[in-house]
Amino acid sequence: MRLEVRTLRLILALDEGGSLAAAAERLHVTPSALSHQIKALEQDLGLAVFQRGSKPLRLSPAGGRLLAFARRIVPEFQAVEEELARLAAGRSGRLFLAIECHACFDWLLPVLQAHRARWPDVDVDVRFGGGFSFDALEALQRADVDLVVTSDPEPRAGVTYEPLFDYEALLVMAPTHPLAAASFIAPQDLAGETLLTYPVDRSRLDGFAHFLRPAGVEPRAVRAVDLTAVLLLLVASGRGVAVLPDWVVRADQTRGALACRPLGPTGVRRVLFAALRAETKRAPYLDTFLALARAAKDGRASLYSKPPDQAPDETADAL
């Protein structure tokens, strides 16, 4: 014979109900219909599943073995059913992100917190994709991740890019640094400086890729720092200068802890993109993430911190 989930549910109902009538009520069938199901099951097994005449109803050894199996399998089966129902309704799923931007973690945390408040059943994972051994866009093409945050869009088959927000790359230094007196920074100004950077390929660093390299200028020294907080402490203490997105240094600049100057007379402005698979059917929780990310630069992610059964405010469409 072939066991089915309905068979296991029948055994659970017999054990929990303690009688045929109670079991039938649990299964939403008539006692007569349940008796026919039990008879058919016992014919298939060649064994009785409960002891006739016992009050309350007692399972036979065969029924007890099925009960132990049912207690393991049925809850797992129900959990899968519920998960699939949430998937079908768009309430759950996965959102695996790759971030090609060290500084993005400063706005990503509140975005993920706001996203979780709205979509608690969505499985979210984050990988850093700006290193030397992990190609985030290739992972996107393989469907290992669902979205890549990058400021360096590359033509890739099956990949599309949506802008999140623009930013300006600024030279950041201690307020007492001599370059703080300049109205803007020329590439040659950094030839004698220690440049603090993130430990990623220079092609992914705005200061090198879009400012120093085109001018053929090399800093006196380059020091890699993993954490933004440590990097800012080193800059503030005069241990070097750094090129960072404006959103990272806005608060420190406002309170006078750091000085910031544009790169060149017109500045270096960049756009942060979300890379997506072109054929991806847009899940509503992905749209929420994009909206939160677009609002994050201005600190407005909290506008979206609403339960799943509520829509964002109409004003959010303009963020």
TrEMBL record:
Subcellular location field: Cytoplasm
GO molecular function terms attached to this record: DNA-binding transcription factor activity; transcription cis-regulatory region binding
Name used for this protein in its record: HTH-type transcriptional regulator MetR
Superkingdom assignment: Bacteria
Protein's gene: metR
Keywords, ordered alphabetically: Activator, Amino-acid biosynthesis, Cytoplasm, DNA-binding, Methionine biosynthesis, Repressor, Transcription, Transcription regulation
Entry annotated with the keyword DNA damage: no
Gene3D superfamilies: Periplasmic binding protein-like II (3.40.190.10), Winged helix-like DNA-binding domain superfamily/Winged helix DNA-binding domain (1.10.10.10)
GO CC annotation, single: cytoplasm
Entries under SUPFAM superfamilies matching the protein: Periplasmic binding protein-like II (SSF53850), Winged helix' DNA-binding domain (SSF46785)
Listed GO biological process terms: methionine biosynthetic process
The keyword Transcription belongs to this UniProt entry's keyword annotation: yes
Family: Belongs to the LysR transcriptional regulatory family.
Domain HTH lysR-type, first and last residues per copy: 3-60
Species in which this protein is naturally found: Pararhodospirillum oryzae
